[in-house]
Amino acid sequence: MAKVTLTVNGRTVSGDCEERTLLVHFIREKLGLTGTHVGCDTSQCGTCVVHMDGRSVKSCTILAVQASGSAVTTIEGLATDGELHPVQAAFKEHHGLQCGFCTPGMVMTAVDMIGRHGGKLDEQTVRHELEGNICRCTGYHNIVKAVLSANEQMHGTARQAAE
User: Fold this and answer.
1) What is the sign, positive or negative, of the torsion defined by CA atoms of 145, 151, 156, 158?
2) Among residues 7, 4, 13, 3, which one has the least CA distance to residue 50?
């Protein structure tokens, strides 16, 4: 057993786990944060995306012991004082979800994408960067609209997906 200490959503947490425990399982099973989903077990679907040290990562590809000492943000850590993060609000406003299973990973990927591109996003870039996230319900159109809308709100740009 290994001791893992992380800062998760601004709070320092510790727990013991087997050395082979994936970060996604540590988050869900040891910490009880079930917003981070396990969808494929092959790192292809993106439902397990979290931010580790400020960058989006698929938490099914990282061992919990590898993440020890890192700062991790999960979907539960985005809202502030009961107010949705702008990306969460945009997904709600633009109906960027259906069943909701992929939504946490999509939102976490979008937050990172918007931050990295500093407001310079267009539809093609958003679609390209979402390739690692699978949604089985939608045609991605409303997801792209939501990301571009959040980008506009967060950076004051005006690039919209075609209606």
Assistant:
1) negative
2) 7
Tokens 């996230």 belong to residue? 133
* Residue 77 per-residue DSSP state: G
The CA distance from 149 to 161, in Å, is 9
Angstrom CA distances, 153 to 38, 66, 122, stand at: 30, 35, 14
Q: What is the pLDDT of residues 56-67, one digit of tens each?
A: 999 999 999 999
Name the DSSP letter for residue 105.
H
Decide if pLDDT at 162 tops 80. Answer: no
Predicted pLDDT at 139 = 77
Mean pLDDT over 21-36 rounds to 97
Angle at 106 between CA 158 and CA 122, to 5 degrees: 25
At 155, the amino acid letter reads H
